[in-house]
Write a structure and sequence with these properties.
- Helix 1 packs antiparallel against helix 4 and helix 2 packs antiparallel against helix 3.
- Strand 2 and strand 3 form a beta hairpin.
- This protein is of the alpha+beta class.
- It has a five-stranded antiparallel beta sheet with strand order 4-3-2-1-5.
- It has five helices and five strands.
Length: 241
């Protein structure tokens, strides 16, 4: 049995770590909800077209557009119409028979962006479940596993952001009929929120790694349950001559 002063101090430390993990999981839930909202939004990148640019793809003179992960909304003027018309359409995810190599590359990057968005969502759900389980179980390995999954989730988010930026560079260089010379772009609130979510995931990963520190060579576990959970496992293997 541990002396009472040591037991009380280690119990307070364990309670503090549990509180920090709960706050981290709450922040993860908030970031997950925010990403779901931004995923269905077109406020990622704002595009402003040159004056009197007529797009054959959309049969209108484009003025500006809003680009998102799933779709893009265009604002322009139809023929013989003075008012602005706005229409939204999903990104092209299928390769047409008459597609050029540049268009096929664009479709491939769009698929990659959508795929890693889904991967990020799945990893975020798995991370939350593992985080809850690490609170119930004292074994330090579960916290480290959760920290590693946080890193994978952040990596999926980073890939999604970088592919989105690469798409615009590719279109400007290879597909002038979509974004002609003089087209300007500006990052929207969803793009900024994606970077904030990425940083939050990294901080959450470091938090779980910090809370999973194993006190080797000591017997200062806060409770008997923690001592039992972190006890070395005997695999029962023995070698006889």
């Amino acid at each position: 049995m541990l002396p009472r002063p040591i037991a009380s101090s280690t119990a307070a430390t364990l309670e503090q770590k549990t509180k920090i993990i709960r706050i981290t999981l709450a922040a993860t839930v908030v970031s997950f909800i925010v990403f779901l909202i931004t995923l269905t939004s077109t406020q990622w990148i704002y595009v402003t077209y040159p004056r009197d640019f007529y797009s054959k793809r959309h049969n209108m003179t484009l003025v500006r557009s809003r680009y998102g992960i799933i779709w893009e909304c265009f604002s322009g003027r139809l023929k013989n119409v003075s008012t602005l018309t706005t229409k939204c359409d999903y990104h092209q995810s299928h390769i047409q028979n008459n597609s050029t190599p540049a268009e096929q590359t664009l479709v491939g990057m769009t698929r990659t962006m959508l795929s890693f968005s889904v991967i990020h969502i799945l990893l975020a759900i798995i991370t939350f479940i593992c985080g809850l389980y690490s609170i119930r179980d004292y074994r330090y390995t579960y916290k480290r596993l959760t920290g590693m999954i946080y890193i994978l989730s952040a990596a999926a988010m980073l890939v999604c952001i970088e592919v989105l930026s690469t798409i615009f560079r590719h279109i400007n260089e290879q597909l002038p009929d979509i974004y002609p010379a003089g087209t300007e772009r500006a990052y929207g609130v969803c793009y900024v929120m994606a970077w904030i979510i990425f940083v939050q995931l990294l901080i959450a990963s470091f938090t779980f790694f910090a809370c999973s520190k194993k006190r080797k060579g000591t017997f200062d576990e806060a409770t008997e349950e923690e001592a039992l959970a972190n006890r070395p496992v005997d695999l029962g293997r023995s070698f006889r001559r």
